[in-house]
Amino acid sequence: MDHSDYEALDGAALAAALGELASSFSLVLVHECDSTNSRLLADPPPDDGRIHVLATDLQTAGRGRRGRVWQSWPGAGLTFSALWRFAPGSPVPAGLSLVAGLAVARALEDLGVEGVQLKWPNDVLIHGQKLAGILVELIPGRGRTPAAVVGIGINLRLPPDAGVEYPTGVTDLARCLPVPPGSNLLLGLVLTQLYRLFDVYAAAGFSALRGAWQQRNAFADLPVRIIGETDELAGVCAGVDEDGALLLRTPGGVQRVLSGEVSLRLA
Ligand code: BTN
């Protein structure tokens, strides 16, 4: 595969993309690692008031939701994780993965990508095909400020024989834009949006971002199936609740589905 036009992650280029926000982040860029989520979970950096980010050019053991694998190839995508700390004693931030999805969507829109949609709880789709995935994992407080690792993978230029399976197919930015962005610019734009939206979320909760999420809801008013570990629920997608739970209109009334080990499919 030709990945000669892949731009490696670079501290100076990323700082330039972040502008005055650069000092709000602690940025660690590595050429290769197993999984940026696993690294931050295993060894969370101390809280110094900044958002800690670990990004890599190549992930060798990337993880997806529900025990799946997030595959990587040299030059094929952007993979990174951000450690977000929330107020001690606050409830589990159920809406966090939706907030992260919205941040990716806004960054893509800033680049001029059209047809960006969000699939509950956290896939980013372009005209129905998966462009990016998000894996949020919690680090329990144990006397320290509790935190969440927000891991994001965005397809930049998938190899033609990638063979990634997704019910409606996958896409990459090379197919969405005449000139796809370099990885530093893309990371800078997503981190800028994460910074802004985490701030709103911390101050006002998911309800302040609910409208923006729903505007991009891929399955709004469509018949869907929720597939759990042992059961399945069918209904019409009625958007999301104040806390980010999915609202499903069923013959028995509107049911709330909490994020977790469930998958959403078009019925
Ligand atoms: C999914 O769609 O199932 C979630 C995919 C999340 C992939 C990202 S890539 C960076 C971070 N590190 C990981 O191991 N996974 C997440």
Nutshell version of this structure?
The protein is 23% helix and 31% strand. By secondary structure, it is an alpha+beta fold.
Our count of helices gives 6
Structural class: alpha+beta
The total count of strands amounts to: 12
Amino-to-carboxy terminus distance: 36 Å
Share of β-strand residues: 25-35%
Low-confidence stretches: none
| Helicity, as a percent range | 10-25%
Bound molecules: biotin
Structure characteristics:
267 residues, alpha+beta, 6 helices, 12 strands, globular
What does this structure look like?
- The structure is a single chain.
- The chain is an alpha+beta fold and 267 residues long.
- The chain is 23% helix and 31% strand.
- It is built from 6 helices and 12 strands.
- The strands form 2 sheets. It has a 7-stranded mixed β-sheet, sandwiched between helices. The chain has a 5-stranded antiparallel β-sheet with strand order 11-10-9-8-12.
- A hairpin with a 2-residue loop joins strand 5 and strand 6.
- Helix 1 packs across helix 5 and helix 3 packs across helix 5.
- It is globular.
- The termini are far apart.
- The structure holds biotin.
- The site of biotin (BTN) has 20 residues, from helix 2, strand 3, strand 6 and strand 7.
